[in-house]
Design a protein that fits this description.
- It is a single chain.
- This protein is an alpha/beta fold.
- The chain is built from ten helices and four strands; from the N terminus they run H-H-H-H-E-H-H-H-E-H-E-H-E-H.
- The protein has helices spanning about 1-15, 20-30, 35-45, 60-65, 85-90, 105-110, 140-155, 175-180, 210-220, 230-240, and strands at about 80, 155-165, 190-200, 225-230.
- Helix 5 (about 85-90) runs parallel beside helix 10 (about 230-240).
- The protein binds N1-cyclic inosine 5'-diphosphoribose (N1C).
- N1-cyclic inosine 5'-diphosphoribose binds near residues 82, 107 and 175.
Length: about 250
């Protein structure tokens, strides 16, 4: 009996407990069905485990994107920059209107999470990881760049982007939207970019802001551009009233 108890205790301690991070990954993933989440977890880990957390290249996530590719959702793709809460406050209620990267399997699984590896270890860490701009090739930033690029690659028809009218530079060249997504919009797929400038009470920018000139210049020839100043309350109203047609929100 003593030997059995010792064996069981030893077995339990040696068996690596599933980390909280892995559990989050798997439970979020399982909501989507149709994917082998354990396999995706394995592919995901390959990108960063046992690596210096400042040496994870964007390409390291290519196998993960290939294992759970983004499906084109013409006329429904929603991009954003510095408007995450407003966007999701709206899209979470109006899935009939728009799809964001966070509504896809990979985007929803990793949204809000921090992770990294360490050389000589096969574990995933959630603290002590480099910050967003601490070093360029960190695991979290490289993931969002890789995923955003792939998401922008499949955008088609009319695409929408919500920008923030309460900041100095609504179209900021260092943002993922400006540096990764816009340059990927391809005129053979994307017909038009509709910018929704989110206007709050203390807005300092609007559709006339000079940074938007850079946006129009960065667009592939053949893609039409429009910008509309829309109050945050109007966006919320549209989120709350499913009877308002998507096309009539703004
Ligand atoms: O740098 P940003 O905005 O312009 O990036 C937003 C842009 C969106 O259009 C998304 O498609 O890039 C994509 N994207 C995400 O979907 C995403 N989800 C969570 C980029 N970043 C994302 N995050 C986290 O938000 C990420 O970890 C980083 O910290 C921010 C970037 O958001 P931003 O600067 O407001």
């Amino acid at each position: 009996i003593v030997i059995v108890i010792i064996a069981v205790v030893l077995g339990l301690t040696l068996r690596q407990n599933k980390s909280e991070f892995e559990s989050t990954f798997l439970s979020r993933c399982e909501k989507f069905n149709q994917y082998d989440c354990k396999k995706l977890w394995g592919v995901f880990q390959q990108a960063y485990v046992d690596k210096d957390p400042c040496k994870v290249l964007v390409e390291a996530y290519n196998p993960l994107i290939a294992a759970a590719p983004f499906k084109p959702q013409c006329n429904k793709t929603m991009f954003w920059s510095k408007t995450k809460d407003v966007v999701h406050g709206f899209t979470d209620k109006r899935k009939d209107c728009f799809v964001t990267l966070e509504d896809t399997l990979l985007g929803s699984v990793l949204d809000g999470l921090t992770w990294c590896g360490k050389e000589g270890s096969k574990d995933t860490f959630t603290s002590g990881c480099p910050g967003w701009s601490e070093c360029e090739n960190n695991p979290v930033r490289s993931f969002w760049i890789c995923a955003s690029a792939a998401f922008a690659d499949v955008a088609c028809g009319d695409v929408t982007a919500m920008l923030n009218g309460s900041i100095n530079t609504p179209f900021n060249p260092t943002s993922i939207f400006a540096s990764v997504e816009v340059p990927r919009f391809n005129a053979s797929r994307v017909k038009k970019l509709n910018v929704v400038m989110v206007i709050q009470k203390n807005n300092i920018s609007n559709c006339n802001h000079s940074s938007l000139k850079n946006l129009t210049q960065a667009l592939d020839t053949g893609i039409t551009y429009s910008c509309k100043d829309v109050s945050e309350s109007r966006i919320q109203e549209c989120g709350a009233k499913p009877e308002i047609a998507c096309g009539a929100c703004w």
